[in-house]
Amino acid sequence: MAQHNSSISNFKHFSLKFICPLLLLIIIGGYSFQYFFEKTVILKNSISGAYKVNRIINELHPDEVAMIGSSRMEGGLIPDILGKNYFNYGLNGTKDNVSLFFLNEETKKNKTTPIIINIDIGGLNNSMGYILYYLYNINYQPVRDIVAEQDKPYYHIPFIKYYGYYELYLKDYLTAKIELTKYSNKGASIEKNILLLQKFSEEVKQRENTPAAFNVDPNLGSRLISIVTSHLNRKFIFVVAPCHPSCFSMYKNESDEIKYLNFLKTYKNVRVFNFSKDHYPDSLFFNTEHLNYNGAIKYSKALRDSLSKI
Amino acid sequence: MLFNSVGFLIFFPVVTIVFFLLYHQYRWMWLLAASCFFYMFFKPEYILILAFTIVIDYYAGLLLERETDLKKRKRYLVLSLVANIGVLAIFKYFNFINDNITGFVSVFNYKNHIPYLNMILPIGLSFHTFQAMSYTIEVYKGNHKAEKHFGIYALYVMFYPQLVAGPIERPQNILYQFHSRKYFNYDNAVTGLRLIAWGLFKKIVIADRLALYVNQVYADVNNANSLSVLLAIIFFSLQIYTDFSGYSDIARGAAKVMGYDLLINFNAPFKSKSISEFWRRWHISLSTWFFDYLYYPLALSFRDFNKAGIALALLITFFLSGLWHGAGWTFILYGVLHGAALVYELYTKKIRKKIFGKLPVAINVFLTRLFVLLYLAFSWVFFRSENLHKVKFVFSKLFELNFSINFVQLFASQGPFKFANILFTLILCYLLSVMSKKMPGRYNVPYIFILIFLIIILGENGATQFIYFQF
User: Fold this and answer.
1) Which residue, of B1, B265, B279, B349, has the fewest CB within 10 Å?
2) Which of A167, A175, A178 is the best substitution to test chain B (most B C-beta atoms within 10 A)?
3) Is residue A70 part of a domain?
4) Do B456 and A167 touch (CB under 8 A)?
5) Which domain holds residue A172?
6) Which residues in chain B are closer than 8 Å to A166, comparing Cβ atoms?
C-alpha cells in the first residue's frame, strides 16, 4: 500500500511538473504555429489547392469568372490572357466530382458571370486529388463528402491535422513565390520546363500503347445536368483542352465523347469548345496530357478568341 | 505494432499506466499480455513459434541447473540450441539453402525436387532466438541461475520494447529487473520520454526522409549518375544508423519509463577510427553476443595457429554475423567484408601505427575516421542491394566517375526542395544531438516539446517499418 501511495504521489509530481507544462506548450505552441502557417503560407498562395477550396467556399467575388477543372485547367489556361476577372480553380489530380463541388459552391453565390469548366477526354470520373487541398476546410460537410473514407480522426485536431503536409504546403508556396519551375497567375500553375526529347518520346510511346475511353459516371452526369438546368442565369462554358495526338491512338469511343458534348450543347445556357484535336507541336507540351507555358499561352488565346465570339 | 504508429501512441501510455496501477505480483502478467498483443499485431499465429522456443528453453534451463553430469548438461544445451537454430533454419534460411542447392545441382544437370516454403519471415526472429540462446548458454556456463518462474522467463524473451529488434539482452542484465519492485519515478519517466521522442525524431524525420532519396536511386540506378549514387550510398549509411538507433532509443525509453534498463546498443559509431572500434560501438548487443559466444570459443580452439587462428575466428564470426542479418549472399558478403577488415587491422596494426603516428593527431583522426566511414558506406551497398547483380550495378555506376551536375539526377527526381530538406534536417539532427548532451535537466520539457513539434512539422507521413524488423 505504501509503495502504491509513493508511486501515486510521484505520478502527481510528474503530471504537475512535466505532463501539464508539456501539454500546455504543445497546445499553445501548436495552435499559434498553425494560425501563423495558415495565414502566411496556405492562404497566401493562390495556386495552393487549400486556398482555392477556401476561396470558392468563403469568398465572394461578384465579377469573377470561375475556371473549374483538373490539372488540364490549372496548367493550361492563363486567366490574365482571358480577361481581367478570371480565376483558375483547377486542381491537379482531381476529377469531375471535385469540379462539381466547385460548381455547386460557385452557383450558390448570387452572381451572373459565366463559368468555364474543363472536361477531360476521359469523360466524367471521380478522383479527389490530394488530401492537402481539403484539410483547412475539413469540417465543412461538402468537403467531408469528397474526402469520405480517406478522412482520419487526426485531421480534425488542430496543428496535428497537417502532420506530414507542412512541407508540401511550403513547397507550393515557394513554387508560387519563386516561379523557378512554374509560372503562376491567379490560380493557374503552368510548367515552365520542357521535357528532354528522349523522355518525351518515351512518354509518347507509352501513351500510344495505353488504352483510353470516354466514360460518364451516371451520378456525376445527372448532378452536372441538374446544376446546369437549375441555374439558367449562368452560362456554362465547357472546354476540352488540347491533347497530344498519341492520346487518341488507343482511344476507344471517340464518337461517345462527341455525342456527349453535342448533348451538352442542347442546353441553352451551355457552350462547348473542343480543342482536343487542335494541332499543337510537341514543343508546346510538357507531357502528352499537359501543355507547357508556351502551349498554355496559345491555348488561352484560342479560348479568348472563341469566347469573344459568343 | 510499429513504434512509429498511432497504435503505439495509445498502446504505450495504456500499458505504462496500468503497469503502475497494478500490484507488483501481477505486473509480469500484464507486461506479458501486452507483449503478446504487441507481437500478434504483425501475424498472430507466429506467437506459437515463440511459445515453442520459450517452453523448450525454460525447461532446458531448469534441467541444466539440476544436472551435474557434464555430458547430460551438454546434451540439454545442444537440444535448446538446436530448437532455436532449427526454428531460424526453417523460417529464415530454408529457402535460401534450397535456392543454393538448386543452383549447385543444376551445374550437374540435375533438378532439385525439394519444395520451397511459402511463408513470411516472423518479425524479429533472429533477435528473440538469440536472446533465448544467450539464456541457456549463460545457465550452462553457470553465470546465471535458471529462472524458476515460467511467466518471468517468457517475459524475458517477449518483453515488448526489445522483442522485435533488440537490444539482444542477457539474462544477468534484465531477469533480476523483472523480479524487483518498480516505483513510478520522475527521472525515469522523463529520461524515458526523452529517449522515445529522440528516437521517433531520428526515425520519422531523418531516416524516413533519407529513405525517399535512397529508395529512388536504388530503384532506378540506370537513370542515376555517379554523384547521385555516391549520395545515396552516404545517405543510406545515415539512414540505417538513424533508423536502427532510433528504434533502440524508443525501446530503451519505453522500458525506462517503467523503470527497466535495457542495454545501450549504439555509442557514436561514426566516430570509430577502425572497423574493430566500430563493432564496439555499433549494435553492441549483437557484436558482444557473437564475440562472447562464438569468437572467443573459436579463438581459444584455434590458439595453436597464433594470429592465423584469430583471423580465422574473426572470419567465421563475421561470416555468421552476415548470415544472421539475412538469408542472402549480399548479407554474407557484408559480414565477410567486415571480417576481412578486422583481419587487415590485425595484421597491419604496427605498420599503421608507424605511418599514421607520424601525422598530426587531428589529421590522423580525420583520415582514419574518413577511411572507416567510406569502408562502412561501401559495405552497406551489399546490405541495401537485393542481390549481387544490383551491387555490381551500383558500383559500376559509381565508378563511371560521372560527377556532372544534372539536377534531375542530383535530386533523384524529387526536386530541389526535398533535397534541401534532407540537408536541413541532417544539420538540425546534429545540432539537437549536440544540444542535448550539454543541456541541464530543467530544460527537458522545452526539449521534448521541440522534438514533438519538429516531428509533426517535418515528419514524413505514413509509418514505415524499421529496417532491422526484417531480421
Assistant:
1) B349
2) A167
3) yes
4) no
5) 47-132+165-308
6) 456-458
ipTM of predicted assembly, 2 dp = 0.77
Same domain, A55 and A26: no
All three cell numbers of B231, joined, read: 549520395
**Judgement on whether residues A37 and A175 belong to the same structural domain of the protein:** no
- Give the span between the Cα atoms of B248 and B265, in whole angstroms: 7
Q: Is residue A146 part of a domain?
A: no
Q: From first to last of its 471 residues, what are the pLDDT tens digits of chain B?
A: 778 788 888 999 999 999 998 988 899 999 999 999 999 988 888 899 889 999 999 999 999 988 888 899 999 999 999 999 999 888 888 888 888 888 888 888 888 888 888 777 788 888 989 999 999 999 999 899 999 999 999 999 999 999 888 799 999 999 999 999 888 888 899 999 999 999 999 999 999 999 999 999 998 888 888 888 999 999 999 999 999 999 999 999 999 999 999 999 999 999 999 999 999 999 999 999 999 999 999 999 998 888 899 999 999 999 999 999 888 899 999 999 999 999 999 999 888 888 877 888 888 889 889 999 999 999 999 999 988 999 999 999 888 887 777 767 777 777 788 888 999 999 999 999 888 888 887 788 888 889 999 999 988 876 667 676 666
Could you list the active site residues of B?
325
Partner-chain residue, chosen from A13, A25, A170, that has the shortest CB–CB distance to B449: A25
Q: Of A5, A7, A157, which to mutate for an interface test with B (greatest number of B Cβ within 10 Å)?
A: A7
Q: Do A71 and A202 belong together in one domain?
A: yes
Q: Looking at the structure, tell me whether residues A30 and A123 fall in a common domain.
A: no
Number of folded domains that form chain A: 2
Who among B184, B190, B457 is closest to A7 (CB)?
B184
B337 three-class SS? helix
How far does the CA of residue B461 sit from the closest CA of chain A (Å)?
4
Looking up residue A64, the CATH number of its domain turns out to be: 3.40.50.1110
- A32 interfaces chain B, CB cutoff of 8 Å: no
Residue A29 within any structural domain of the chain: yes
Residue A112 belongs to a domain: yes
> Inter-chain contact A14–B456, Cβ cutoff 8 Å?
no
Angle at A124 between CA A123 and CA A129, to 5 degrees: 115
